[in-house]
TrEMBL record:
PANTHER family: ARSENATE REDUCTASE
Species for this entry: Roseateles aquatilis
Limits of the Phosphotyrosine protein phosphatase I domain: 6-144
Pfam families reported for this sequence: LMWPc
Entry annotated with the keyword ATP-binding: no
GO biological process, one term: response to arsenic-containing substance
UniProt keyword terms in alphabetical order: Arsenical resistance
Protein name according to UniProt: Protein-tyrosine-phosphatase
Listed Gene3D superfamilies: 3.40.50.2300
Recorded superkingdom: Bacteria
Length: 164
């Protein structure tokens, strides 16, 4: 039995924190069943250091992460996505590019850990909370019997995950 690899794109406005966390976590947890990418509608140009710290603590490699535009994934020759998730409310409200292959889309919004002000500990706690929330959502998605569900059932399930 051949196992299919699902391409997943996580979108946020700045592509510096939440979408980076999602990309790193899914590539680590997905064990080859998923290939995750991230992008931003208005990329900041740099990945937030606390996002990289949050990924590296459990041993997830952080080499190669960069803040990039979602336009890279709408170009000819870009990987064809199976799923596209917005992880911030601002990106969810923007007009997205047309994605080749008509991927399933859902909104998995969460607070921006990079917007937290205060002590270094408070900032780190915000990144930890975002990573924990994203990890739970990804685990729910990975537990879905994707090869046995039709597109409408999968779409309902991944949309519901974002509201849990």
């Amino acid at each position: 039995m051949t196992s299919r690899v699902y391409n997943v794109l996580f979108i946020c406005t700045g592509n510096s924190a939440r979408s980076i966390l999602a990309e790193g976590l899914l590539n680590h947890l997905g064990r080859g069943r998923f290939q995750a990418y991230s992008a931003g509608s208005h990329p900041r140009g740099a990945v937030h250091p606390l996002a990289l710290k949050e990924l590296s603590e459990p041993g997830i490699p952080t080499d190669g992460f960069r803040s990039k535009s979602w336009e890279e994934f709408a170009q000819p020759g870009a990987p064809e996505m199976d799923f596209v998730f917005t992880v911030c409310d601002q990106a969810a409200g923007e007009v997205c590019p047309v994605w080749p292959g008509q991927p399933l889309t859902a909104h998995w919004g969460m607070p921006d850990p990079a917007a937290v002000e205060g002590s270094d500990d408070a900032k780190q706690q915000a990144f930890r909370a975002a990573a924990v929330t994203m990890k739970r959502r990804l685990e729910l998605m990975m537990s879905l019997p994707l090869q046995r569900l039709d597109a409408m059932a999968i779409h309902k399930e991944v949309k519901d995950i974002g509201t849990r």
